[in-house]
Design brief:
Blueprint: E1 2-6, H1 9-19, E2 23-25, E3 28-31, E4 34-38, E5 44-46, E6 73-75, H2 80-91, E7 97-101, H3 106-118, E8 125-127, H4 135-143, E9 146-147, H5 152-180, H6 190-205, E10 211-219, E11 222-229, H7 232-242, E12 247-259, H8 267-278, H9 282-294, H10 313-326, H11 370-386, E13 391-402, E14 405-416, H12 420-428, E15 450-451, E16 455-462, H13 471-479, H14 501-510, E17 514-518, E18 523-527, H15 529-537, H16 540-543, H17 545-560, H18 565-582, H19 589-594, E19 599-602, E20 609-612, E21 616-619, E22 627-629, H20 633-636, H21 644-653, E23 655-662, E24 669-678, E25 684-690, E26 695-696
Parallel strand pairs: 1-4, 1-7, 7-8
Antiparallel strand pairs: 2-3, 3-4, 5-6, 8-9, 10-11, 10-16, 12-13, 12-15, 13-14, 17-18, 19-20, 20-21, 21-22, 23-24, 24-25, 25-26
């Protein structure tokens, strides 16, 4: 028999159905000469430092660096039962061969190999490599299984990544925690990511706005501008000089420009646009596309490619036709797709761009959750745009000469809307409309035309600071390691991978280094005082995006067999050893470290920090109206007060268990759970569930 190991139970079920393994057992399915089982993500992980030596249980500077000579692994405690199942199946005499069917990527390979090695399995195995969970894709994949050894380099890269993260995380965190007597969590990728946010926040906080003035002259529908005049006096003088005078069209330039269709979505680009259009976090988008992948409605999501291969052209045409029939937003849209625009074999390695599958034909889209429908609409829109016609427009640039000053204006008219028509259709479905292109059409004039008696005016403006990162712009910065010189065709050296970036952002929020602030749609990622303090004491090599991006590139080279994993690990060890040996504590850092924000949790409306103030627990976002008042009438009626601990529970889970509550009416005591609901206007409503049953509003 052949043992097939998937990454998740849902994926195992899809595979088992195709293979005919329909008999359910404890932790696996069996039938048709196949046994199909699964992991629950990472079943086996690197052990903690204390497992190598008991003295590492205590954090001491003198023990650093901690670098294992021989690496040890352990079964994740809460997943031990499933490991037992897999281990027993691997040892089952009936099993002669295995198939690795975990996700087709670096981490999927690591998940399988660590279980395989920990179980002491030596039986041969093959690799299933698919980009869709459709029945046809699974069958095709099993018809073209490859020898597992062909993916040894992928495993090496994954294992090197895991070991590097361990060395940097364990040693960096212990180093700075022992030196500053405060837990400071360091990560190979998360710290440089945090550093970019802190740098941006610093530029904003130190920004000094400067006033400037624009002078406008015009007549009728034609107005031109002289921008960024330094003083109001000078601007008014220019305006006065031009008022009621003649202006001459000194130059006129017309040219036709084209905007090529965008590329298909890779994971990062999809996460960025889902954040921009819907306010989804990167993790929310990843969870949604993973669910749609497991429902067989999308191809494999964790991809860094924006192209398909030429053997997929017929499928792509079929999918486009299905999108126009199945997604109500594009119902009736007539397109003649140019598939060649999105086809490039050289730019598809492990997986192609994210596409809907032909399974969408059988799906009642209206029955899906709204969030999943939004993702399908977004991916459908991008597919239609990417294979659409070029957008063409005529741009006109006009200069007006008046009293020795040159005033300029631009305008454009659409020649062929092309792919933009699909994009506009999509944007029209959004509740919040995007800002229109400020360029307008200009009246017909000719070079040398004279405008008599022009009017002149002055407007006041201010320079603006850099914008805080949103999830959209941070993902873009992570993709290029903060280097804005990259263009779409540059092979990017980024921070993390498409599959890991969402997790990095979420971890920074979870451990209190970042917080989300803003309205429901647009939330900014703001470093907390704790996060800023960490970056402030970090040396350059630990917070450097470029060095971490360089490490990420070397992991890719290991995958390709162009760089030795031993050399990579030696470099990591040298950096950490040098850091420990040479780092000097920053003076007066204890003052900086102690200034913690008095936050007790996150606002249920906007996600900003809720702070403990004199009369209430207020949301730190001034635009948000959420508050938990300390003299809360509902709590007073049951003999309780709104303490920080109570507020913390309500914020984290929406409920709090209370003992020895006292009835205002009878004086009897009781235990109960109080539930909190928050309306869109920030008002709170409480209800109660008694421990012995029953509810009270």
């Amino acid at each position: 028999m052949i043992l097939v190991i998937a990454e998740k139970p849902s994926v195992a079920q899809s595979i088992a159905k195709v293979l005919g393994a329909t008999s359910r057992k404890d932790g696996y399915m069996e039938g048709g000469n196949y046994i199909v089982s699964w992991c629950f993500g990472h079943l086996v992980e690197l052990v903690d430092a204390s497992s190598y030596d008991e003295r590492y249980a205590k954090w001491r500077y003198d023990d650093l660096p901690i670098v294992p000579e021989s690496w040890m692994f352990e079964v994740t405690k809460d997943k031990a039962q499933q490991f037992k199942v897999l281990s027993a199946l691997m040892k089952d005499k009936r099993v002669t061969e295995l198939v690795c069917a975990t996700d087709a990527g670096r981490e999927g390979e690591l998940i399988f190999r660590l279980v395989y090695n920990k179980a002491g399995c030596t039986k041969p195995f093959k690799r299933l490599w698919i980009s869709s969970l459709e029945d046809s894709a699974i069958r095709e994949g099993f018809n073209h299984l490859r020898d597992g050894k062909e993916y040894d380099r992928l495993y090496e890269a994954a294992l090197s990544r895991s070991k590097a993260d361990w060395i940097v995380g364990i040693n960096g965190t212990r180093l700075f925690t022992t030196l500053y007597h405060k837990k400071l969590v360091v990560g190979r990728v998360q710290t440089p990511t945090l550093a970019m946010l802190v740098e941006r926040d610093g530029k904003i906080s130190t920004f000094h706005k400067e006033k400037y003035f624009n002078v406008h002259v015009g007549k009728g529908d034609l107005t031109a501008d002289l921008e960024k005049v330094k003083t109001e006096e000078e601007a008014k003088r220019i305006a006065a000089a031009c008022e009621k005078k003649q202006a001459v069209v000194s130059s006129l330039k017309r040219e036709t420009k084209t905007v090529n269709p965008p590329k298909l979505y890779d994971l990062t680009t999809l996460q960025r646009e889902a954040n921009r259009y819907y306010g989804f976090t990167a993790q929310q988008t990843l969870d949604l596309v993973q669910t749609l992948y497991e429902k067989k409605l999308l191809t494999y999501p964790r991809t860094d490619s924006q192209f398909i291969t030429d053997d997929m052209e017929d499928t792509a045409r079929q999918v486009i036709s299905i999108v126009c029939r199945q997604l109500p937003l594009f119902s009736g849209v007539s397109v003649t797709p140019d598939i060649s625009r999105v086809t490039d074999n050289s730019k598809v390695t492990d997986h192609h761009a994210i596409l809907p599958t032909v399974q969408l034909e059988k799906q009642d889209v209206s029955a899906l959750p709204q969030s999943e429908q939004k993702i399908l609409n977004l991916i459908g829109m991008r597919l239609l745009c990417a294979t659409g016609e070029k957008h063409t427009y005529a741009e006109t640039q006009i200069s007006l000469s008046c009293e020795g000053y040159e005033f300029k204006t631009k305008g454009k008219t659409v020649v062929q809307n092309g792919w933009k028509a699909i994009e506009e259709l999509f944007k029209s479905s959004l509740k919040t409309k995007e800002k229109d292109d400020p360029m307008k059409s200009l009246p017909e004039v000719h070079e040398g035309d004279v405008l008599d008696g022009v009017s002149a005016s002055v407007t006041e403006h201010f320079t603006t600071p850099p914008k805080q990162y949103t999830e959209d712009t941070l993902l873009s910065a992570m993709e290029t390691a903060g280097n804005d010189q990259f263009d779409d065709d540059t092979e990017k050296k980024g921070l993390g991978t498409p599959a890991t970036r969402a997790g990095i952002i979420e971890k920074l929020v979870r451990i209190g280094f970042l917080e989300r602030k803003g309205d429901k749609k647009t939330k900014h990622l703001i470093p907390t005082h704790k996060g800023t303090a960490l970056v402030t004491v970090m040396p350059e090599q630990i917070q450097s995006p470029s060095m971490t991006a360089d490490w990420e590139e070397k992991l890719l080279l290991i995958e390709k067999g162009e760089y030795a994993s031993e050399d990579f690990m030696d470099e990591i060890k040298d950096v950490i050893a040098g850091l420990i040996q040479n780092y000097e504590v920053i003076r007066d850092s204890e003052v900086m470290m102690s200034k913690e924000a008095n936050s007790i949790g996150k606002c249920p409306l906007c996600g900003s920090a809720v702070e403990d103030k004199a009369k209430a627990f207020f949301c730190s976002n001034r635009a948000c109206k959420f508050a938990l008042w300390k003299n809360n009438r509902y709590f007073a009626s049951i003999g309780k007060s709104m303490t920080p601990a109570t507020a913390q529970k309500l914020l984290s889970s929406g409920k709090v268990k209370l003992k020895n509550c006292k009835s205002e009416r009878t004086g009897n005591t009781f235990d109960a759970t109080v539930f909190m609901e928050v309306s869109d206007d920030g008002k709170t409503k409480f209800s109660m569930e008694f421990e012995n049953g029953g509810k009270r509003k």
